[in-house]
Amino acid sequence: MTQPTEIERLIEMMAKLPGLGPRSARRAVLHLVARREGQLAPLARQMQQVADTARACVRCGNIGTAELCPICADGRRANGQICVVETVADLWAMERAGVFRGRYHVLGGTLSALDAVGPEELRIPDLIGRIAEEEVSEVILALPATVDGQTTAHYIADRLEDRVTLTSLAQGVPIGGELDFLDDGTITAALNARKPL
Amino acid sequence: MTQPTEIERLIEMMAKLPGLGPRSARRAVLHLVARREGQLAPLARQMQQVADTARACVRCGNIGTAELCPICADGRRANGQICVVETVADLWAMERAGVFRGRYHVLGGTLSALDAVGPEELRIPDLIGRIAEEEVSEVILALPATVDGQTTAHYIADRLEDRVTLTSLAQGVPIGGELDFLDDGTITAALNARKPL
Question: Considering the entire predicted model, what is its pTM?
Answer without folding.
Answer: 0.80
